[in-house]
Specification:
Rossmann fold, 6-stranded mixed sheet, 10 strands, globular, binds adenosine-5'-triphosphate, binds magnesium ion
Length: 235
């Protein structure tokens, strides 16, 4: 589904991702862990086409399509979604208008509204939050749920969750993770996390450890347990 070939990414003239080779398959859940500043968000943002992150060499191939030079909106149309580590807010636009614009021409506005309301209920998002300016005054955990709501409505092929479990309480984590687990069919998940706890509900097919812009180790869920117990020093 996604193939990264010899990918080198720089930001502010500093190389962050170094010659990365990675293959992500359909119907699989990948977990990406690594120390702060190792390049996890850089990888996710550059896969989404963020203009600050320059591809110095290599390729990104999504289902045989070379997306390396593609604009972010085209990548979103091609089926990539990024749930931000730090979601932004938008003044004067609520989630209904945001998603109506995103899917214009593809979904009936009334059906879309119903879908948003139904998904919000499943995610235990308060109605009042949906009517407010997007993310304005939303708590950390509420923002993460709104990220997941967008992912659900947009129905992408590849979803990158950048720390969706950070700053959420135990009940919210359970709601989020169980929703992810229920809706993973036909998709590829890349879950960036520092914690093992989300893996209680969403079982990964592979755990990848990134250090200094490189994948230094791959394993199954036990690798995440090992990291939690011993840190990154003794891998
Ligand atoms: N826009 C930017 N300008 C300058 N440096 C940046 C920028 N974005 C990322 N970096 C640098 O790139 C390195 C990797 O950052 P990145 O956010 O990818 O780390 P991370 O693995 O996601 O860390 P964390 O676990 O703390 O979220 C860091 O040293 C960071 O300061
Ligand atoms: Mg990060």
């Amino acid at each position: 589904m996604l193939r990264l070939k010899n990918l080198t990414i720089a930001v502010a003239n500093k190389v962050i991702i170094k010659n990365l080779n990675l293959k992500l398959e359909k119907n699989k859940v990948y977990v990406l862990m690594g120390p702060n500043g190792s390049g996890k968000s850089t990888l996710a943002l550059s896969l989404m086409g963020h203009p600050l992150y320059q591809v110095r060499s290599g390729k990104m191939i999504l289902e045989k399509q070379n997306i390396t030079e593609m604009e972010p909106d085209k990548r979103a149309n091609a089926g990539i979604f990024l749930s931000f580590q730090s979601p932004l807010s938008l003044s004067g636009i609520n989630i209904f208008s945001l998603l109506r614009t995103a899917v214009s021409g593809k979904k009936d506005p009334l059906a879309l509204r119903e879908e948003i309301e139904k998904t919000a209920k499943l995610l235990k998002i308060k109605d009042e939050l949906l009517e407010r300016s997007f993310n304005e005054g939303a708590s950390g955990g509420e923002k993460k749920k709104l990220e997941l709501l967008q992912a659900s409505v947009l129905n992408p092929k590849l979803i990158m969750f950048d720390e969706i479990d950070t700053g959420v309480d135990v009940d919210a984590l359970k709601t989020i993770a169980q929703f992810m687990e229920k809706n993973k069919k036909g998709k590829t998940y890349l879950i960036i996390t520092h914690y093992n706890r989300i893996l209680k509900y969403v079982r990964p097919d592979a755990v990848l450890i990134m250090v200094n812009g490189k994948i230094v180790k791959k394993g199954d869920y036990r690798l995440a347990e090992e990291v939690e117990k011993n840190g990154y020093q003794n891998l």
